[in-house]
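call fold target=PA14 domain-containing protein
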Amino acid sequence: MSCVPSSFTQSGVNGLEKVLKLIDNTDGTYSVSFALNHIGDTTISVVQSKHQDITGEYYNSGTISGTPDVTNTTALINFTYAHGQDITPGHPDWVAARFTGKLTPFQSGTCNITLLQDDGATLKINGVAQISNYGIGMFGSTIFSYNFNAFETYDLGIDWMEKTAGAALVLSWDCGAGSVLISSVNYASTDDIGGSPLQISVGCPDKYEQVPSTTDQCRPKCGDGFVISPEVCDDHNTNNGDGCKSDCTAMESNWACPGGSSTTKSVCTECTQGLYLNNPSNPTECVAECGDGYRVGSEACDDGNNIDSDGCSSDCNEIELAWKFLLSALLLF
């Protein structure tokens, strides 16, 4: 009989808790599962996978050029080496590395990002340098703020060098309550379980759904009755022919779907004959269009064109005077 506990839960900050479970495989071995939960509602889980988003390329020449001597995948950018300790086999010093990967935050907001480096490092987001501490003896910690937009994918790049003595590179961030980024969401532990690195699978927030064929991307859920950008409308279904397209990307021709928001659904109405969606200040309003041959609404007349001196003014606001006399004369006979 095993004396090892089967489950361990640790409460954390920002309404999160860590759950570690030990699974008896009944063959003398055990598997471990880990989950990071919002207390009362599991939204983030960890599954085993060989896929990792962070690639590390190491150069024993100390310069990032040519073919890397060592390439691997890493999950958490957090390592230190003592003086004389090998970074790559046989190379404790004069090593450079480039780390590339992607971040996809699930909320918008500003994060304070910290990079500790020894000897030096440059950090880029979407190709723009945010930290430039690249040089011998550049040990230190730098903090900068960056504003993230929900569901956008950001390219992350770090160039790092180690020339002499100890070595270190640690990337971390603080987004406050309701964190935009959580380190274990974007990068898993570097520990291996059963020979496979851990990979994060993130559950989507309320009113969102997972993008097919992905494990870390969410999008507004079309058909739930709530309009969330980039949705244009959402009439609580995924049908065509009722005003809102089945993928919620646009209103159908000559339909108006006003009233949609993150808390209310769109109510679609088809514009009747002679009314159109052509009001730029209110794209969901059905309005008359002068010159289409249909007199509706406030139009005084509509003779099918926008020409003066043919009976109806070019703006359809009045019957022209000469034609009024002619009409009156005709009515007398």
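return ok
The domain at 54-179 is CATH 2.60.120.260 (Jelly Rolls). The CA atoms of residues 68 and 264 lie 54 Å apart.
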